[in-house]
Design goal:
Elements lengths: L18 H18 L3 E2 L5 E3 H8 L4 H5 L2 E4 L5 E4 L4 H10 L9 E10 L11 E10 L4 H17 L6 E6 L6 H13 L7 H9 L10 H6 L12 H16 L4 E3 L11 E8 L8 E7 L3 H4 L7 E7 H9 L10 E5 L2 H16 L4 E3 L6 H11 L3 E5 L1 H6 L1 E6 L5 E5 L3 H9 L3
Helix pairs in contact: 1-5, 1-11, 5-9
The protein binds one RNA strand of 76 nucleotides through helix 3, strand 6, strand 10, strand 11 and helix 11.
Length: 422
RNA sequence: GUGGGUGUAGCUCAAUGGUUAGAGCACUGGACUGUGGCUCCAGGUGUUGUGGGUUCGAGUCCCAUCACCCACCCCA
């Protein structure tokens, strides 16, 4: 009777060695850099009441309309697996009265997000983000600081050649005017637009600006530009942001057509992309959301944040091929007594923090040596019957081929001294 | 949700509609009885993703289904 074999759910994946070491490296770098910028960790639930996503991301957004993992729990509540982190962070911020902490309040979080989408390169149904949110300061200095932090982080993990794009999409005062201008402009050209853009005209006219269809690109040549519609406050906010970024030497470009898909953004939006990723080329994106905390029942609180996509980051870091960790010592044995004694010696190394693998009786010494080599161990210790009798143990450095013998009692000091040199 | 591509050994892939589906890599052992890498030899696993259909005969052709990949939409 053949046993049923199971596969992971569509669009989700296992993360295992050697990739897991890249993940750990990225996570460690993030924590270290966020720490010096004053960001503290939040552990947020992966499910929330459905309403918080509908409210924040927007009822007509694609995420809410067709991509959420939503279910009814046994108490009849509508629950959703989070499709992004900002809504949860804001809910947490308001619920726990974090606005009473000295401002700005700066937080980061990481973990899986869920969207029911068709998987493709760089897009999964369960994907991981590291997100950052800073509350309580409307000054563009804060925007600049977190963009600078993002840049430092990306460089720390060895990435370069990324594109930083920024834009300002205005606030609740000036954006409606721009939206109306767009509607007015495209109303006479509707017939020349692609079907998707006709839909965008109804739902989110700003999106027409980054359509890839040639006809639409042609039609929008003379479309109104967002910068012409920004109110005085938004203009000065954006220009100060730009001058600080220049001072901090962040190599950005302004992309006036960059529009984010989430409704809650105000003023600053930004995106970091790579040409090496395929169609889904954003590795990080974020922006300001000055209205959301108030929307969620908190005091009026400006905020700005971003999220980075872990899988996309990992794909980029992979090119810089890091070596996978390997055991420092391999103990090969000949004979039953030696094989047992090897376990005791191994414990001694492990107590000192040294990764040791042990060969077991049954395999020839030759094959144990071969295995040690494949493990990429630095040293092999050889323990046979005669060594055991003499209270000594053979050693061989697999990197340079040198070999010798040392007393069993001295082996720890001997190797510890030599391992430090590797 | 839409479109295209691909499913054969653990991995990468062969096999004109025709016997018992092969190779490389990897793995294990040996040549070299207790010293890795190089070389050589030996060892074995497949319900050809799944279910139907056409045919004397299907890994190969057809249909369905599932999974993966890529793109659209959208996004990290």
């Amino acid at each position: 009777m053949k046993k049923q074999r199971y596969n992971a759910v569509k669009g989700v994946q296992d993360i295992l060695p050697p990739d897991i070491y890249i993940w750990q490296k990225i996570e460690a770098a993030a924590k270290e850099i966020f720490r010096v910028y004053g960001f503290q960790e939040l552990r947020l639930p992966i499910m929330e009441p459905t309403a918080i996503f509908v409210r924040s991301i927007g009822e007509t957004s694609d995420i809410v309309e067709k991509e959420m993992y939503t279910f009814t729990d046994k108490g009849g509540r509508s629950i959703t697996l989070r499709p992004e982190g900002t809504a949860s962070a804001v809910r947490c911020y308001v619920q726990n009265h974090l606005y009473n902490l000295p401002s700005p309040q700066k937080f980061f979080y990481s973990g899986p997000m869920f969207r029911y989408e068709r998987p493709q390169k760089g897009r999964l149904r369960q994907f991981y983000q590291i997100g950052v949110e800073a509350f309580g300061v409307s000054e563009p200095k804060l925007d600049a600081e977190i963009i600078a932090m993002l840049r430092v982080f990306l460089e720390r993990i060895g990435l370069s050649g990324l594109n930083f794009e920024i834009n300002s999409i205005g606030c609740e005062k000036c954006r409606p005017g721009y939206r109306d201008a767009l509607l007015d402009f495209f109303s006479s050209r509707l017939d020349s637009l692609c079907p998707d853009c006709k839909r965008r005209y109804e739902q989110n006219p700003l999106r027409i600006l980054d359509c890839k269809v040639d006809a639409c690109i042609e039609q929008r040549k003379d479309a109104p530009v967002v910068s012409d519609f920004l109110c005085d406050e938004c203009v000065s906010h954006f220009s100060e942001l730009r001058s600080i970024l220049e001072m901090l030497d962040v190599p950005y470009v302004v992309n006036p057509t960059m529009v984010r898909g989430l409704d809650y953004y105000t003023r600053t939006t930004f995106e970091v992309t790579s040409e090496r990723l395929g169609a889904q080329n954003a590795v990080a994106a974020g922006g300001r959301y000055d209205r959301l905390v108030e929307e969620f029942g908190g005091p009026p609180t400006p905020a700005v944040g971003f999220a980075v996509g872990m899988e996309r980051l990992v794909a980029l870091v992979k090119d810089t091929a890091d070596s996978v960790p390997s055991p420092e010592v391999f103990i090969a044995t000949v004979g039953k007594d030696a094989a047992q004694k090897a376990l005791l010696i191994a414990e001694g190394f492990r107590a000192k923090g040294v990764w040791v693998e042990v060969g077991y009786e049954g395999a020839s010494l030759r094959s144990q040596m071969r295995r040690a080599d494949r493990f990429n161990a630095n040293y092999v210790l050889i323990l046979g019957e005669d060594e055991l009798k003499r209270g000594r143990i053979g050693w061989k450095n697999l990197k340079d081929g040198s070999a010798g013998e040392v007393g069993i009692q001295e082996v720890y000091d001997f190797l510890q001294k030599n391992l430090n040199k590797i």
